[in-house]
Structure formats: structure tokens, C-alpha cells
Inverse folding.
DNA sequence: AAACTAATTAGAATTATTCTAGTTTTAATT
DNA sequence: AATTAAAACTAGAATAATTCTAATTAGTTT
């Protein structure tokens, strides 16, 4: 674990946002950390391969990075905003339905976030 | 709905594979349809915007296209293979847990497919 | 058939990401 | 402290998937 990778891991673990590589890069620069975007990508890949972070893929958005603690997501179908939600772990229930071993699962609930709801009401 | 879009929609609806734009393009060429890859992309985008097809995103793979009939997916964490699975619709149950209206959800179950299991046993 | 519109196309552009090969930093060893 | 080796980092090129642009073709309507 390199120093930079650790900084990046801390950012991800300390934030409830779901940051892109670019956003992490900018946040580091704000904090006067001298780092290149390539290193951000390299570190993210390394952290991901070690299972220390997760990726969240949403159509139309660059990869966003997330802490590993189990949780699910609300995805705003208008603006793409991701919000964590803590539902009960369904692994055991799913395993009963699936003929091969279940490693994990990924649940994204599509909704319209409050902010987009408001905007739409205004129009 | 253009003639080409209809051909593409038929391919997607007639197949349990989860084809990429490129695969759809190649399949059309096999069938002697004169079409460009750009038109395949354009048509897919149009079909998607009309809600006539869905996209499946899996890390490391190009977008794959899918019929809209509600179902869930098994995703092989080794090879990326997608398999349909028909679990009970959870929308109502999820709605009880979520403070905003639930439009839909996307459940991907990560597993190791039979073929990859076999390969691993051999090694 | 001329005129208009819609569909299609080739290829350029874009975007996010990975790769390459050189440079810098760090740590270990003399 | 100088030398060496390894690891980390970097700029910029390369890549891959997809979208965009502007021109062409096909289909319709007058």
C-alpha cells in the first residue's frame, strides 16, 4: 500500500459521495497533494484489485468509487445521483434461488431524487 | 420505428444472449443486412430511449443489450457471462424501505458460472 | 421527375481509461 | 554518505467504446 493509495482510500472511506477518479484527483490537488491523474487511476485499480474499494457503474457516468461496507444504492434516473441505502443483506435468500454459489450482489434502485422532483414540479 | 431498428429489436428479443452493439452488427451482416455500425448504435440509442430495450452494464465489458421483460441477472465474476434469472418482483417490498418513489431496480448476482467452475477445478 | 424529409453512412471526435517508457523517490547496502 | 536496486510516479501516447457531424442515399409527396 503506497502513500498515495492510502490517501485515496481515506478519501473514499471518509466520503458519502461516490467520487470519480477525476474528482478524487481534484480533491487531492485542493489538499496540495502533488499527484498525477495516472497515479490516481493506478491506485484505484490497485485498491480495487485488493478488494479495498468498490466501483459503481451507472449508465452515462464515469466509474464512481465506493467503500466496501455492504449497502445498496438509490440511483436518480434524472441526474445520476447516488444515495446509499442500508437494506437487509439478501445473500442467503438469493442463494436459495440460485443454482451456483452466490458471491455477492449489486442492487440499484432507480428513483427520482428529491432535488430533481422539485425541479420537475417547478416546470 | 425504422426498418433497421425493427431488425435490431427482433434480434434482441429473440436471443437470450446479451449482445453488444458490435455483436448485433456482425449478426446483421451474417444475415446479409447492409447496415453500418453507426446505424446500429443510433438504432440502439433510439430503442433505448423509447424504453423498448435495456442495457446491462458490467465492469470491463461494453454495453450489452437486453429485452425489457422484468428479470434479474447472474454475472460470472470470472468471465462476465450474463444469465437471466427470474426472481419475484421486489418493487413493492423495496418501496416500503425507500422514501422516494421506486421506478424500477436492477439486481445483479455475482457468481462463478459452471464453465468457469469446471475450468478452475481442472487447474 | 423535382422537392422535401427521413434514414443511413463514413469517418472524425470525444471520453474515460489503460499503457508505456522514462524519471523520481525511497529504501537498503556498502 | 555514496551506490544501487526497487518501487512509485509521471507525462503523454494509445486504446476502446461510443457519439457526433456533415454528407449521401432512399423514400415520399407534390
Amino acid at each position: 500500500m503506497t502513500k498515495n493509495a492510502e490517501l485515496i482510500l481515506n478519501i473514499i472511506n471518509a466520503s458519502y459521495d461516490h467520487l470519480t477518479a477525476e474528482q478524487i484527483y481534484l480533491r487531492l490537488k485542493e489538499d496540495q497533494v502533488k499527484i498525477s491523474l495516472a497515479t490516481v487511476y493506478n491506485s484505484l485499480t490497485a485498491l480495487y484489485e485488493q478488494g479495498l474499494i468498490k466501483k459503481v457503474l451507472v449508465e452515462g457516468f464515469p466509474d464512481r468509487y465506493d467503500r466496501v461496507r455492504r449497502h445498496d444504492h438509490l440511483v436518480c434516473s434524472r441526474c445520476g445521483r447516488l444515495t446509499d441505502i442500508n437494506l437487509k443483506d439478501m445473500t442467503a435468500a438469493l442463494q436459495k434461488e440460485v443454482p451456483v454459489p452466490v458471491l455477492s450482489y449489486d442492487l440499484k434502485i432507480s428513483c427520482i431524487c428529491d432535488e430533481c422532483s422539485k425541479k420537475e414540479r417547478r416546470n
Remarks:
- DSSP finds five helices and five strands in chain B.
- Residues 2-4, 35-39, 42 of chain B lie near DNA strand C (CB under 10 Å from a C1').
- Chain B has a mean pLDDT of 97.
